[in-house]
Amino acid sequence: MDDGVHRPSTNAWLDDYFSRFMPAFEKAHYKNLRDFHALCLKVRDNGGKLMFAGNGASASIAAHGRVDFSKQGKVRGLDFNEPNLITCFANDFGYENWIAKAVEHFADPQDVVVLISVSGRSPSVVNAAKYAREKGLKVVSFTGSAPDNPLRQASDISFFFESRAYNIVEAVHMMWLTTVVDMLVGQPEYSVS
Predict the structure, then answer these.
(1) Whole-model pTM?
(2) Would you say residue 56 has pLDDT above 70?
(3) Residue 109 is part of a domain; what is its CATH number?
């Protein structure tokens, strides 16, 4: 089929594509991984919870994180992906405030807010980070795109992957989250039942 679109050879394209993930494995990220792990242990020991939120695919990553941290990592988790909650809070407080309002309604003092956004600029997550910090809650963020994004600036622990390729950044965010889960378990292979 010749539709006029240039497609690189499969191997060259894949080599380039997968090379874009390599910075995620650099030791520069180890400190954040260790710091988040330590924070999770503190949350678990204090009976707190991790509250996860994001928009779009980041909401799916948040939900996956909540399940794995709760089930495997033994750190209670909560996410705000319930349609009734989202539509109620967005309708009553504005979409830009719905996550902050969810944090307001569900947070306890020993909790941590985990916010995921490729751009780091979505008003709903940025406002949630600002609210959480004002209330003395720790904020952990997973962002990409530009290094000066406001969510990154408003975080206590900031996981940042410098790429504007959404699928790559989202995959890296998932990898970093599940790495910390496995750190809590203490090994990469284990029974999940």
Answers:
(1) 0.94
(2) yes
(3) 3.40.50.10490
